[in-house]
User: Which sequence fits this backbone?
């Protein structure tokens, strides 16, 4: 089994950490609870941090032309500037961070689904967008793993978020070491994982590592990091995963029985039809890597891109894969 460094993740504090919601509630979130063993959380409640107590009067986003203001209808207080200042100071003060996991639908933390109302009282919703704190994260860390708990109930989106998060965290070690050898090893062990995400971007990453222009190591690592985030911009497609699985299967196909081959084909078909997760297919391939002692494949992160303990989180069944 792989060993993983703990990624640093900023998380909405009301999820598992504190009863700081406007109504004094705390949210039980299975993803956050499970992740606690594998990541270093940095919990924050921006609304409490700007001095709103718990419990507190509700706040909402109100449309102001093309912009939105964060206001508290009962007191008519405009909290926009306070929240922006807090977000700027808090996020600017983070020394190292690998990702963000926020509460959905919040006017502060919502990543994309915070309601924007036309006015203070009983007014219609005119659009949805990111909350103020989440919006500042998107501005300052546009390429970083960022998700809300609602979307992470879907196992495909969760798988993508975890893969991006733990790969970025692993890359941080390479970045800190500033070693071309470490970068080459990182690139080599992630080959099949990256292939599943984007064939063209894998070639781009390879050209950066080859460094034919003899750039300084800091420049090479910077270019590689940008290309790495580009690679994870969208989740890998089911069809790409199937191509990679078939490619890996090719290493063993001559040594397998007819029944084993047939069983593998059936598993791939079930994965294609989204009846089983990718991890079920990878478990078979991984067992063959051990059985046939393929050291090259055993080093590939593709078989365990994030800790296996995180696979067990139950799924809502909502959402569909990219085919
Ligand atoms: S959603 Fe964000 S601001 Fe609201 S209670 Fe949770 S942590 Fe605090």
Assistant:
């Amino acid at each position: 089994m792989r060993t993983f460094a703990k990624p640093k993740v900023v998380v909405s504090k009301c999820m598992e950490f504190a009863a700081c919601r406007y109504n004094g509630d705390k949210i039980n979130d299975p993803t956050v609870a499970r992740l606690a063993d594998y990541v270093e959380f940095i919990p924050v409640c921006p609304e409490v941090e700007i001095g709103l107590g718990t419990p507190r009067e509700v706040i909402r986003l109100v449309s102001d032309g093309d912009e939105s203001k964060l206001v508290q209808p009962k007191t008519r207080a405009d909290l926009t500037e306070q929240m922006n200042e807090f977000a700027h100071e808090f996020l600017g003060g983070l020394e190292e961070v690998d990702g963000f996991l926020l509460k959905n639908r919040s006017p502060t933390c919502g990543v994309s689904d915070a309601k924007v109302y036309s006015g203070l009282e009983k007014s219609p919703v005119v659009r949805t967008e990111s909350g103020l704190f989440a919006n500042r994260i998107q501005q300052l860390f546009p390429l970083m793993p960022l998700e809300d708990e609602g979307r992470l109930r879907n196992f495909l989106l969760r798988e993508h978020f975890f893969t991006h998060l733990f790969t970025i965290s692993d890359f941080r070690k390479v970045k800190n070491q500033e070693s071309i050898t470490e970068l080459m090893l990182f690139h080599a062990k992630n080959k099949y994982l990256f292939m599943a995400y984007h064939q063209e971007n894998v070639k781009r990453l390879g050209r950066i590592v080859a460094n034919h222009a003899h750039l300084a190591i800091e420049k090479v690592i910077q270019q590689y990091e940008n290309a790495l985030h580009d690679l994870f911009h969208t989740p890998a497609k089911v069809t790409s995963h199937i191509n990679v699985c078939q490619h890996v299967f090719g290493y063993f196909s001559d040594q397998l029985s007819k029944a084993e081959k047939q069983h593998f084909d059936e598993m791939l078909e079930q994965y294609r039809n989204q009846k089983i997760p990718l991890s079920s297919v990878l478990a078979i391939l991984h067992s063959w890597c051990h059985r046939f002692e393929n050291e090259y494949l055993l080093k590939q992160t593709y078989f365990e891109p994030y800790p296996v303990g995180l696979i067990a989180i139950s799924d809502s069944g909502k959402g569909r894969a990219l085919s």
About this structure: Residues 315-323 have pLDDT under 50 and may be disordered. The beta strands are 8-12, 40-44, 60-64, 67-72, 77-78, 99-102, 114-117, 125-129, 146-148. Residues 8-151 form one domain. Residues 12-14, 20-21, 45-47, 103, 106, 108-109 surround iron/sulfur cluster (CB under 6 Å).
